[in-house]
Each structure stands twice: as C-alpha cells, then as structure tokens.
Design goal:
Layout lengths: L1 H26 L6 E2 L1 H8 L5 H11 L7 E2 H4 L2
Antiparallel strand pairs: 1-2
C-alpha cells in the first residue's frame, strides 16, 4: 500500500513539473530562460494594464531582478 502511495505521489509530482515547464515555455516564447514584462505584454496585449503585468512578474520574481527565471518558479 505504501509503495502505491509513493508511486502515485511521484507521478503527480512529475505531472506537475511537466505542466509548470510547459506553462513557463509558453510565456518564454523567445527561449531566453526567463519571462519579463515584455513577454507578458506580447501575450496579453491590451487585456492587462501595465500595473497588472508588473505585479505578475513581481509576485513570481524570487531574486528581484525584474524577470521570472526558471529557478524562480522551479520550472
């Protein structure tokens, strides 16, 4: 029973990691290894104002360099 639970948790973790990487890659369309406000602006265009885009980056920017690196989000 324990082995089943451990295997299931590992599968869920791998699936979550794949989804996170896929989402990161979607936003990092230039394949620079990070997402910045310009990437978000290209995708969201007029749907989001500048303050929302900045807040999105700031919330995920662990090292406060103005961009979301793969390291910042675990992708």
């Amino acid at each position: 029973m324990v082995e089943f639970l451990v295997a299931n948790l590992k599968r869920q973790q791998i699936s979550s990691e794949r989804n996170l990487k896929a989402a990161f890659d979607f936003f990092d369309q230039q394949r620079r290894g990070y997402i910045d406000i310009e990437d978000l602006r290209r995708i969201f265009g007029p749907l989001c104002d500048e303050s929302v885009l900045k807040a999105l980056v700031d919330d995920a920017d662990a090292n406060h360099d103005g961009k979301v690196d793969k390291i910042d989000n675990g992708a």
